[in-house]
Structure prediction request, 81 residues.
Amino acid sequence: MITLLLYAISFVAMAIVVPNIVKRDRAAVTLLMLPTLTLDALACLFFTTVYPNVAPAAAGLFGGWMLICCGGAVAGVWLRR
Prediction:
């Protein structure tokens, strides 16, 4: 339940913040998300190495959180236009 709340808050926060960052060009959201999506794939693959003090079971939560943030960013940009 807490995870769903975290995801919902993150989605809404990104949907509000990102359109204000990329006001003029909707395509800029892609450039904003690209490092997150690329590095997230590597961070999840090597989760125990990148985050040695975090339980390995948290890799899915982490990956999902990054994806939900990117989804909120895209939704916020496209819904505001």
Q: What stands out?
A: The mean pLDDT is 94. The chain has four helices and no strands.
